[in-house]
Amino acid sequence: MSDISVVPEQAILVHVNFSQQHVSEDLTELKLLVSSAGVQTLQVITASRSAPDAKFFVGSGKAGEIAALVEETGADVVIFNHALSPAQTRNLERLCLTRVIDRTTLILDIFAQRARTFEGKLQVELAQLQHLASRLVRGWDSLDRQKGGIGLRGPGETQLETDRRLLRERVKALQTRLAKLTKQREQGRRARQRSEVPVVSVVGYTNAGKSTLFNRITKADVYAADQLFATLDPTLRKLKLKGVGEIILADTVGFIRHLPHDLVAAFKSTLQETRDADLQLHVVDLSDPRKDDNMQQVELVLQEIEADQLPQLVVYNKIDLLQQLPRIEYNEYKQPVAVYLSAVSGAGVDLLAQALSQLLSERYLDIALLLPPDQMHWRARFHQQHSIEQEQFDADGNCQLQLRLSESVWNRCLKQSHGQLENYVVSKPVI
């Protein structure tokens, strides 16, 4: 049997420069996105404008140049490194006689290819449909005419109205399914919170090496490759740290500048792992000349999902590409704030474990309690949390407890007892 090779789609890339900064970096990222989508780049067209053209985004002259190049090269698709309006997309398609997609559609297509879990596929489909909702007019002719003909006479809906109604129904069905999956994920999250196991979330710009680092630390087999959005579905693994015990490490989807808002909204339940973590590992590609801007873009997405106030440890990855030595940076309080390592070679990974142990153990409390007999339900609660180091009863039936638990857990217990537990504290030194 002969092998059938799949010919990749061929594309013309278009980038419009509205400022003189980061032109080459923007183009490099666009090429990486196109390569990650499995598309071959034929030509790159650049232009400079002070503002987008209302009709063609690039102006009629440059649009004509793109159309001529499409005819000359036989390109399958024209990809813009910008967000296009439905009208601009439609006008360009009519002129170029081929498909025209924008940056958002390209990213959504990559996500569709990467989704592996049922929840991930539903989230991507929801984002795609929400993005498509305003673009239904594209590619249709005479959609304002009502159905007619034998077997086609309907209730008077136009074809476009029918498509929009079907799309709304599908979106509603997807949202209902995702709501159920979100409840299931929330139950698992609450179970982890009850067990009081610290959660460390790995975040960062796409292709910074998050999954490679995740695999190195946890001995997992998460797919890792030198491409954008290699990992889409979240992965959680247990890990034991010296001085801390068991923790959960969560690997999530990488971020990117101009991340589609619909995509962020659709993946909010998945990104909840990041928002509810005890600590964030912000992985940064140290060899990327635009690392500072990439870090800023990650912080913007974290703000959007309300996860920007969590404690964070910066991990500068790929030091092997710069011939740097692994090290830990500390702040004025002698707390780790950054670790320099190489996830590929493993250099500095032991320092990361050391920094994690210090940060997580510093957030634990040693508390001595004297509980009266009518408060024994708290003794049972602390046993469930595995927080009791020592216990003994006196002649009056009071229970003397020596606890070791995280500060967040203790604050939660105080809140649930309306502050009453504070009355039974004998001592509370912070470790």
TrEMBL record:
<dbReference type="InterPro" id="IPR027417">
    <property type="entry name" value="P-loop_NTPase"/>
</dbReference>
<dbReference type="GO" id="GO:0043022">
    <property type="term" value="F:ribosome binding"/>
</dbReference>
<dbReference type="Pfam" id="PF16360">
    <property type="entry name" value="GTP-bdg_M"/>
</dbReference>
<keyword id="KW-0547">Nucleotide-binding</keyword>
<dbReference type="Pfam" id="PF13167">
    <property type="entry name" value="GTP-bdg_N"/>
</dbReference>
<feature type="binding site">
    <location>
        <begin position="229"/>
        <end position="233"/>
    </location>
    <ligand>
        <name>GTP</name>
    </ligand>
</feature>
<comment type="similarity">
    <text>Belongs to the TRAFAC class OBG-HflX-like GTPase superfamily. HflX GTPase family.</text>
</comment>
<feature type="binding site">
    <location>
        <begin position="317"/>
        <end position="320"/>
    </location>
    <ligand>
        <name>GTP</name>
    </ligand>
</feature>
<dbReference type="InterPro" id="IPR016496">
    <property type="entry name" value="GTPase_HflX"/>
</dbReference>
<dbReference type="GO" id="GO:0097216">
    <property type="term" value="F:guanosine tetraphosphate binding"/>
</dbReference>
<dbReference type="InterPro" id="IPR030394">
    <property type="entry name" value="G_HFLX_dom"/>
</dbReference>
<dbReference type="GO" id="GO:0003924">
    <property type="term" value="F:GTPase activity"/>
</dbReference>
<keyword id="KW-0175">Coiled coil</keyword>
<dbReference type="InterPro" id="IPR025121">
    <property type="entry name" value="GTPase_HflX_N"/>
</dbReference>
<comment type="function">
    <text>GTPase that associates with the 50S ribosomal subunit and may have a role during protein synthesis or ribosome biogenesis.</text>
</comment>
<dbReference type="InterPro" id="IPR035647">
    <property type="entry name" value="EFG_III/V"/>
</dbReference>
<feature type="domain" description="Hflx-type G">
    <location>
        <begin position="198"/>
        <end position="364"/>
    </location>
</feature>
<dbReference type="Pfam" id="PF19275">
    <property type="entry name" value="HflX_C"/>
</dbReference>
<dbReference type="InterPro" id="IPR006073">
    <property type="entry name" value="GTP-bd"/>
</dbReference>
<dbReference type="GO" id="GO:0046872">
    <property type="term" value="F:metal ion binding"/>
</dbReference>
<dbReference type="InterPro" id="IPR032305">
    <property type="entry name" value="GTP-bd_M"/>
</dbReference>
<dbReference type="GO" id="GO:0005525">
    <property type="term" value="F:GTP binding"/>
</dbReference>
<feature type="binding site">
    <location>
        <position position="231"/>
    </location>
    <ligand>
        <name>Mg(2+)</name>
    </ligand>
</feature>
<dbReference type="GO" id="GO:0005737">
    <property type="term" value="C:cytoplasm"/>
</dbReference>
<keyword id="KW-0479">Metal-binding</keyword>
<keyword id="KW-0342">GTP-binding</keyword>
<dbReference type="InterPro" id="IPR042108">
    <property type="entry name" value="GTPase_HflX_N_sf"/>
</dbReference>
<feature type="binding site">
    <location>
        <position position="211"/>
    </location>
    <ligand>
        <name>Mg(2+)</name>
    </ligand>
</feature>
<comment type="subunit">
    <text>Monomer. Associates with the 50S ribosomal subunit.</text>
</comment>
<keyword id="KW-0963">Cytoplasm</keyword>
<feature type="binding site">
    <location>
        <begin position="251"/>
        <end position="254"/>
    </location>
    <ligand>
        <name>GTP</name>
    </ligand>
</feature>
<keyword id="KW-0460">Magnesium</keyword>
<feature type="binding site">
    <location>
        <begin position="204"/>
        <end position="211"/>
    </location>
    <ligand>
        <name>GTP</name>
    </ligand>
</feature>
<feature type="coiled-coil region">
    <location>
        <begin position="157"/>
        <end position="191"/>
    </location>
</feature>
<dbReference type="InterPro" id="IPR045498">
    <property type="entry name" value="HflX_C"/>
</dbReference>
<dbReference type="InterPro" id="IPR005225">
    <property type="entry name" value="Small_GTP-bd"/>
</dbReference>
<dbReference type="Pfam" id="PF01926">
    <property type="entry name" value="MMR_HSR1"/>
</dbReference>
<protein>
    <recommendedName>
        <fullName>GTPase HflX</fullName>
    </recommendedName>
</protein>
